[in-house]
Design goal:
Blueprint lengths: L1 E2 L28 E6 L8 H23 L10 E3 L7 H13 L2 E8 L5 H4 L8 E5 L7 H15 L4 E3 L14 H20 L3 E5 L13 H8 L2 E5 L2 H8 L5 H14 L1 E2 L12 H23 L2 H5 L3 H5 L3 E6 L13 H8 L2 E2 L2 E2 L5 E3 L3 H14 L4 E9 L1 H8 L11 E5 L13 E2 L2 E2 L9 H8 L3 E4 L10 E4 L7 E10 L3 E12 L3 H9 L7 E6 L10 H7 L4 E6 L3 H10 L4 E4 L20 H12 L5
Parallel strand pairs: 1-3, 2-3, 2-4, 4-5, 5-6, 7-8, 7-10, 9-18, 10-13, 21-24
Antiparallel strand pairs: 11-12, 14-15, 14-23, 15-22, 16-17, 18-19, 20-21, 20-23, 21-22
């Protein structure tokens, strides 16, 4: 899992784009975390006495990471320890060359002792970096940590500082809990940065219904994420259908699965606007083909090369994408709900597989936090409208029901016409509780249980004149989730919003009454945010009123701290969050921009450093 001289991937999956239908295939071997053991360079006694302790510290950090963190395919995170301890500039440069050869995308410097700060530091301006200084009294690891972080601040190369609260003995190789949490949080966020770099966002179509997030900003993706934007007109989807640029065998296999597993839902259309069974059969096939084609456009498909379509077989190296749909497509063709729901889920007709990130209405600025959540948690993401704030009084007035527990302060109705990942139902269980599972842990029973709780309703004709099917389900209650959104602000740049909370399960009649006021054919999640004592997250109403756009992404777990850390790495300020103070971890220099005003400091630091890939 880690090696001081040669690091190899734990998977043998091809690394050429388009050879597998997996958004992460081009990343293999995945970016590694490089461990930089720094040391006092003085010879004839000082360095020699420290080598063993320094290497033990580096090995312990590598073991911690490889044991607790996985890549998007479930394999352990790969760590590369520098060939030698780093006592000065020559060894720092040799380490940098080694890391470049071995695919390192994140660096963690570790030391228990004094080292020469600016001579040993990692100066790569785009690589996420942290320094762990051992809290011991025998040697001044904390002194080096302070010195090197001062150098990082002075040179404009931010680094995270990791320092345990309690003094340890020199020979203690245990990593304290507080240090463990910081190393792992930094590592998750750093790997997310590294895995996005050089990849693509695929825009299938253009701007949908004037939605700002679908005005795709090439500058944002390039400068802040290190990604390119690829654009394909929706006519390409139709072209591939009509000209057979598709795996027909897979289409038939998928249709057989759909017939067996996708239960028909209610049709709320007036009788004169309902589609005939024959037309619905045709629409069902088109929906399946749309799923295949959007996936193939994103990541390629070797089967297309076998059919004689070599160019199309390559795909666009997209780690995320969006489909415009409305209205240029949906006024004439079936909507994208089925395709988006299936692609965003952790399984399809071939069983469990890595979930994709596909934003409905091509809302690229919602695809971004979906991608963040996908990489941070290795689970599927739910796309939703932030539709309605229901106060306790309003729910009582309309239904007679009194909200209680986590919902007592009110709830937010998260709903969209059907692009939400089926994992969002919560039918899969972890330790007996509803959850979003890693795709490598999903069983046939999980898929069956999920499909039993979802129906596929004929699309509402007044919205979708071309037909199609919308996903209808209700998320189970008690699931910890994190709601996020990225928006662009003229004169400021990108901002991120992060709110942790829980899903809520309402009594059936209460749910039906409230849901029926919007659309009972769409997937619903009732969300109760955790409130803070003051500020914009102090009431459910203020969260709803202050949300920066009409869409949000839901990630499994209370992972707001990881989003905050990631945002700092990307130089994106967080405009609203309810993350507890102990879970806010940013580069050390952020505190120098105003320790008494952490949000203002975040804005000032992000503005001062600017986007990473300028």
């Amino acid at each position: 899992m880690f090696n001081r001289k040669k690091a190899t991937s734990l998977t043998s999956i091809a690394t050429v784009a388009g050879q597998t239908a997996d958004a992460f295939s081009p990343l293999r071997p995945f970016p590694a975390i490089g461990i930089r053991p720094t040391i006092d360079g003085r010879r004839d006694g000082v360095r020699e006495s420290l080598e063993g302790q320094v290497i033990a510290m580096a090995t312990a950090a590598a073991e911690l990471i490889a044991t607790h963190l996985t890549y998007p395919d479930g394999s352990p995170v790969r760590c590369v320890i520098a060939d030698t301890c780093i006592g000065g500039a020559a060894e720092a440069a040799a380490c940098a060359r080694q890391f470049a050869r071995e695919g390192v995308g994140v660096s963690l410097t570790v030391t228990p002792c004094w080292c020469y700060g600016s001579e040993t530091m990692d100066l790569d301006p785009t690589m996420p970096k942290a320094v762990w200084g051992f809290n011991g009294t025998e040697r001044p690891g904390a002194v080096y940590l302070a010195a090197v972080l001062a150098a990082h601040a002075q040179k404009g190369v931010p680094a995270f500082g990791i320092y345990g609260q309690d003094v340890q003995d020199a020979g203690d190789t245990n990593i304290p809990t507080d240090v463990t949490e910081k190393i792992l949080r930094f590592a998750r966020a750093g790997l997310t940065v590294a895995m996005m770099k050089g990849r693509s966002y695929l825009s299938v179509g253009g701007t949908s219904m004037g939605i700002a997030g679908s005005i795709v900003s090439h500058d944002f993706f390039q400068k802040y994420l290190g990604m390119r934007v690829e654009s394909v007109d929706m006519i390409e989807v139709l072209r591939r259908m009509e000209r057979g640029v598709i795996d027909g065998d897979e289409t038939e296999r998928a249709l057989t699965w759909v017939e067996k597993n996708c239960r028909a839902g209610i049709d709320v259309n007036p009788p004169k606007r309902r589609h005939s069974p024959e037309r619905q059969t045709k629409e069902r096939k088109i929906c399946v083909q749309m799923t295949q084609i959007i996936r193939d456009l994103m990541v390629g498909n070797p089967r297309l090369a076998e059919l004689g379509f070599g160019e199309e077989a390559l795909g666009h190296d997209a780690i995320a994408g969006g489909f415009q749909g409305q209205r240029h497509w949906t006024d004439h063709m079936p909507n994208g709900d089925f395709a988006e729901a299936i692609l965003n889920s952790s399984f399809d007709w071939d069983g469990p597989r890595s979930p994709y990130v596909v934003a409905t209405e091509n809302d690229s600025l919602n695809a971004v936090p979906m991608l963040f959540g996908r990489l941070l948690t290795n689970t599927a993401q739910v796309f939703a409208d932030v539709r309605t704030y229901w106060s306790s009084a309003a729910v009582k007035r309309v239904t007679g029901h009194t909200l209680s527990g986590q919902a007592k302060n009110g709830i937010i109705h998260l709903i969209n016409s059907g692009p939400a990942a089926l994992d969002g139902i919560g039918a899969m269980k972890v330790k007996g509780k509803p959850a979003f599972k890693h795709h490598w842990d999903i069983t046939p029973t999980d898929i069956t249980d999920t499909m039993k709780q979802v129906t596929w309703c004929p699309a509402v004709d007044e919205y979708f004149r071309g037909g199609g099917f919308s996903t209808s389900y209700k998320t189970l209650g008690g699931i910890p989730v994190t709601m996020t959104r990225l928006s662009l602000v003229d004169g400021l740049g990108p901002i991120l919003q992060v709110i942790e909370g829980w899903t809520v399960e309402l009594p059936t009649k209460v749910h039906q009454t409230l849901d029926g006021r919007t659309n009972p054919t769409w997937p619903t999640t009732w969300f109760a945010p955790r409130l803070t004592a003051t500020g914009p997250a102090s009431s459910v109403y203020s969260i709803m009123a202050g949300w920066s756009a009409n869409h949000c992404a839901l990630a499994f777990g209370h992972v707001g701290g990881d989003f905050v850390t990631l945002a700092a790495l990307l130089r994106i300020p967080v405009s609203m969050h309810n993350v507890t103070d102990e879970n806010v971890f940013r580069p050390a220099s952020w505190g120098l921009f105003g320790a008494h005003d952490t949000q203002g400091a975040d804005y000032r630091a992000c503005a001062a450093y600017g986007p990473t890939y300028r």
